[in-house]
Amino acid sequence: MSIRVIVADDQAMVRAGFVALLNATDDIEVVGEAADGQQAVELARAVRPDVVLMDVRMPRLDGIEATRRLLAEPREPQAADVGARPRILMLTTFDIDEYVYEAIRAGASGFLLKDALPADLADAVRVVARGDALLDPQVTRRVIEHFVRATMPRAESFSLEALTPRERDVLALVARGLSNREIADELVVAEQTVKSHVSRIFGKLGVRDRAQAVVAAYESGLVVPRD
Questions:
Q1: Which of 49, 65, 142, 176 registers the highest number of CB atoms within 10 A of its CB?
Q2: Residue 190, CB half-sphere, CA atoms under 13 Å: how many?
Q3: What digits encode the pLDDT tens for the residues 124-134?
Q4: Is the distance from CB of 214 to CB of 175 less than 8 angstroms?
Q5: Which CATH entry fits the domain spanning 155-219: 2.40.128.120, 3.40.710.10, 1.10.1040.10, 1.10.10.10?
């Protein structure tokens, strides 16, 4: 089945280019276009795409706030692949850490510059559609450390009360950028055991991927920024 995508960008020519590139692939289908964040939210609610390609800067509602609104909605009580919240792939012309941080914190699964190669765009859509985070955990950690160090703790920061001691250990290693295999070696357990821990951590914290789990680890105080 094709990956169903909405393209949200306030520049008509840019939006048309993305649509043409994605529709030229065999496994991706653009099912809607939006010229601002509010349209993107309304359209996503109506057509239930797999991925929303979301510009950061748009009128009426910016891409980060549109992402928050879409991902804050509860899942419908249906099959796992029906009525699920879409994956969000953020787009921008600016390589600015603040956008990356806010996008991840809002629940976006990836972040891509608009001048990326056409093949990179399609690959990015595929990555987030299958549930993976596009940002490398090491890059994510650098961005998060900078902003956690520079800002006061947020009232809505993540709470780790529901996590077991072992789950906290695993989360701390995820925040260091370790893979499941590397965590298994560190803790001397099976890789499948680590996968189970990570899945439970995601569920308890309400995060969607490893990038957002890194945010949780830092903002909760489990991991502190390095000097």
A1: 49
A2: 3
A3: 999 889 887 77
A4: yes
A5: 1.10.10.10
